[in-house]
C-alpha cells in the first residue's frame, strides 16, 4: 500500500484506523530489525556494523546509557588520542534532505569538555536541546553552559560565555541562548553558537502541541540559518528518541520547502535511514506518529 500512494495521500488517510495500524506495524518491524542489528553488532565486534569502540576501556564510562551507543562507522571522532564521544554523524538520503546533523547524548559531568571539543572541531553553529537537565527526579543531562548571562564556563581547553538568554516569542518553552566560544591558544575571533532549548518535551512522550517544535525549527533554519556544510547538534538525554523525532520532522520540512509531494512514505524512509546510523532513533510509537501529525499540521497550515 505504502509504495502505491504518495505521501500527501498517506497523510490524508492518516485518521483511518487501518492506516494507523499499518504505520504501527512498520514501526514495530523496523524496531525488531534494529534490535537484531544491535545484537549482531555486539556479538560480532569485527563485523561490518559494530559498536565495539563504545565498549573499549575508558570509553564505556562515557556512555550515559549502556544500550544507546554509536556505531563505529559513523561515530564522531575527536582529535587527539582520546577520540571517543557518544555521538553520531547523521547524513540522510540525498533525495530527502541535505541537512547535516550530529545526534548525541546529553553530556555527563565528565564529558562536558569533550562535548565542547566536538562543537569546536566540527564548527557547529547551533545546538538543539530537547530535554531538561532533570526529569521525573532523575538527572538527564549535565548543565553544560554558564548559568547566568555574562558569566563563563571553562571546560577543558574551551571557554564558553553566555552572552544572552531569552524565551522565544509566543513560545516560552523554547529558550534561545547565544554563546561565545574560545578554544585553547586560538588567537582568532570567538565563535558564536546558538542553543535552542525546548523544555516542553517529556521523555519517551510527545509535546502537547506541534507549534513549539515548528517554531523552533523556523528559528533554527531562518534566523540561525546554519550553512549547508556545517552540522547541527541535536540531543536529548540518550540522543535517540526525541533527537531522532526532531530530525525526521526537520528533514521533512526541508524536503517540502523544495518539493510538492513525495512518492511513498517520507517518514518511514527517513526513520529507516536514522536507525541504520544510530540505534533506537525515534524510540517510541507515539514519537513515530508525532512525525506524521506534525508534518500534516505544517502542510495544512500552509494551504
Automatic annotation (TrEMBL):
This is Tyrosine protein phosphatase 1. The keyword Hydrolase applies. InterPro entries: Prot-tyrosine_phosphatase-like, Protein-Tyr_Phosphatase, PTP_cat, Tyr_Pase_AS, Tyr_Pase_cat, Tyr_Pase_dom. Its EC number is 3.1.3.48. Residues 211-289 form the Tyrosine specific protein phosphatases domain. One of its GO terms (molecular function) is protein tyrosine phosphatase activity. Residues 31-298 form the Tyrosine-protein phosphatase domain. Keywords: Hydrolase. It is an enzyme of class 3 (hydrolase). PROSITE patterns: TYR_PHOSPHATASE_1, TYR_PHOSPHATASE_2, TYR_PHOSPHATASE_PTP. Belongs to the protein-tyrosine phosphatase family. Non-receptor class subfamily. SMART domains: PTPc, PTPc_motif. PANTHER family: RECEPTOR-TYPE TYROSINE-PROTEIN PHOSPHATASE, TYROSINE-PROTEIN PHOSPHATASE 1. The keyword Hydrolase applies. The gene is PTP1. Gene3D superfamilies: Protein tyrosine phosphatase superfamily. It holds the Pfam family Y_phosphatase. It comes from the Eukaryota.
Amino acid at each position: 500500500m505504502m509504495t502505491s500512494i504518495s505521501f500527501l495521500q498517506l497523510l490524508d488517510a492518516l485518521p483511518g484506523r487501518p492506516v494507523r495500524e499499518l504505520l504501527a506495524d512498520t514501526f514495530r518491524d523496523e524496531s525488531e530489525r534494529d534490535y537484531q542489528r544491535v545484537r549482531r553488532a555486539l556479538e560480532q565486534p569485527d563485523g561490518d556494523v559494530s559498536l565495539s569502540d563504545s565498549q573499549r576501556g575508558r570509553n564505556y564510562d562515557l556512555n550515559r546509557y549502556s544500550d544507546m551507543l554509536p556505531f563505529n562507522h559513523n561515530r564522531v571522532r575527536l582529535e587527539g588520542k582520546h577520540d571517543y564521544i557518544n555521538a553520531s554523524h547523521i547524513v540522510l538520503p540525498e533525495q530527502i534532505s541535505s541537512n547535516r546533523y550530529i545526534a548525541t547524548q546529553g553530556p555527563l559531568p565528565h564529558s562536558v569538555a569533550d562535548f565542547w571539543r566536538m562543537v569546536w572541531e566540527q564548527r557547529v553553529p547551533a545546538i538543539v536541546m530537547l530535554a531538561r537537565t532533570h526529569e521525573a527526579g532523575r538527572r538527564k543531562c549535565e548543565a553544560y553552559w554558564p548559568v547566568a548571562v555574562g558569566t563563563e564556563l571553562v571546560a577543558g581547553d574551551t571557554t564558553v560565555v553566555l552572552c544572552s538568554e531569552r524565551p522565544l516569542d509566543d513560545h516560552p518553552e523554547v529558550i534561545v541562548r547565544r554563546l561565545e566560544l574560545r578554544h585553547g591558544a586560538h588567537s582568532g575571533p570567538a565563535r558564536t553558537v546558538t542553543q535552542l532549548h525546548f523544555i516542553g518535551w517529556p521523555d519517551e512522550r510527545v509535546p502537547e502541541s506541534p507549534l513549539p517544535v515548528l517554531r523552533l525549527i523556523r528559528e533554527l533554519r531562518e534566523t540561525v540559518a546554519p550553512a549547508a556544510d556545517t552540522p547541527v547538534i541535536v540531543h536529548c538525554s540518550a540522543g535517540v528518541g526525541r533527537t531522532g523525532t526532531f530530525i525526521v520532522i526537520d528533514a521533512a520540512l526541508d524536503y517540502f520547502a523544495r518539493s510538492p509531494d513525495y512518492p511513498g512514505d517520507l517518514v518511514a524512509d527517513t526513520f529507516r535511514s536514522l536507525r541504520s546510523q544510530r540505534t533506537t532513533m525515534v524510540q517510541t510509537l507515539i514519537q513515530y506518529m508525532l512525525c506524521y501529525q506534525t508534518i500534516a499540521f505544517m502542510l495544512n497550515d500552509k494551504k
